[in-house]
Amino acid sequence: SLNVKDLNGKHVFITGCDSGFGNLLAKQLDRRGFHVIAACLTEKGSRELLACTSLSLKTVILNVTDSSSIDNAVEFVKQETDGEGLFGLVNNAGRATPMAPTDWMQIDDFHTILDVNLMGLIEITLKLLPLLKKAKGRVVNVASVMGRLAFVGGGYCLSKWGVEAFSDILRRDMQHFGVKVSIIEPGCFKTGVTSSEVLERDLLRLWNQLTPEVRESYGDKYFYNSLVGVKGLVSWCTY
Amino acid sequence: SLNVKDLNGKHVFITGCDSGFGNLLAKQLDRRGFHVIAACLTEKGSRELLACTSLSLKTVILNVTDSSSIDNAVEFVKQETDGEGLFGLVNNAGRATPMAPTDWMQIDDFHTILDVNLMGLIEITLKLLPLLKKAKGRVVNVASVMGRLAFVGGGYCLSKWGVEAFSDILRRDMQHFGVKVSIIEPGCFKTGVTSSEVLERDLLRLWNQLTPEVRESYGDKYFYNSLVGVKGLVSWCTY
């Protein structure tokens, strides 16, 4: 069996626990007896998670684009694990927008995604390596099917390709120390990342900021078809 | 024949022309009659290139990690092409260090490479798209064999994986407008990027900044073997 034995006292740190996969995983591992340390972006997310989990689950507020917020969370994990090291790190925090034709993007639209999905994931991981090595723990990085294929404009695919490369290198670099590294490549699931409302609102924002020349070169029909396309894609996602 | 006909008046903008591939390409395209606009990082690089090329080759100083430097270069290209648009953009500028086990890295070591090889390349490309669309031009991005495999720690592989994903998306997004997008995936060639001296000096810098615990967990022998490995890798590169 692939089940982990002797869960008591094993600490797992999960990022992005406000909703979606991270939230579900935090609840599930808490029920199974792990000591879950759940990083949430918002106080609201933290409160709601604490309200429906055991007393052993702890939360910490974490914005992965802010180095001092990361340092604070790492210090919290250090104190919670109290010399035992970290059994598991699940890098789940991520965002999907902006997602649109490359032509509609500015460089900051790429930074917005890469700072969370790639640089944030790397910084958290680097700073938790000493605790992971101590416990001969494991890292699970949430990549995506879009870490293998590149089919929507913007930083999302790039960030996930980067996660795949980083994870593969980390896996080899950590093997000697007994730290395992895995990736998960979800397809299309209904989470906050695939919210039709968020994707459509962001498409509209990008469309409105285009120069008249670029907007005309695509045309209104293209824009409306994009909205229809997003709805179609999202409706195809599974729960 | 795959040769381009009627080269006269065709403008090609190449980044990273101080040395290596960019320098060789600028000279070769100049000899063939293209109007080359060669972006150099340094005044020295620019002077040396101008000294051995025709009067039609122009240089511009460009640091791809600096948005205002990019804006300046884009304005220069706009004026040089004078309403004709840009026939070709070759995104060649890049760096390879720091390159070492993940454990030896800090987050800034990743930023150092990604800012040049990925974000710089994207920002240049986005800002030149209007001129490229005007001329139904082409983009050639210098990726790497390490854009397909991930085998050295640090940001290099990640940056090249990102270039592969970005290029593939851009290729599809630009097809309608007649702009072609290609990548080049060099193996190991002797250029500034594979300078044994630079790679070794940087390994030493990283080694010296490790905590005593991490340094001991690798051991002096590992470090010396890394230096030998770098020499071996570089000696295997071709001219």
Automatic annotation (TrEMBL), chains A, B:
<dbReference type="InterPro" id="IPR036291">
    <property type="entry name" value="NAD(P)-bd_dom_sf"/>
</dbReference>
<dbReference type="GO" id="GO:0016491">
    <property type="term" value="F:oxidoreductase activity"/>
</dbReference>
<comment type="similarity">
    <text>Belongs to the short-chain dehydrogenases/reductases (SDR) family.</text>
</comment>
<dbReference type="InterPro" id="IPR002347">
    <property type="entry name" value="SDR_fam"/>
</dbReference>
<protein>
    <submittedName>
        <fullName>Uncharacterized protein</fullName>
    </submittedName>
</protein>
<dbReference type="GO" id="GO:0008202">
    <property type="term" value="P:steroid metabolic process"/>
</dbReference>
<keyword id="KW-0560">Oxidoreductase</keyword>
<dbReference type="Pfam" id="PF00106">
    <property type="entry name" value="adh_short"/>
</dbReference>
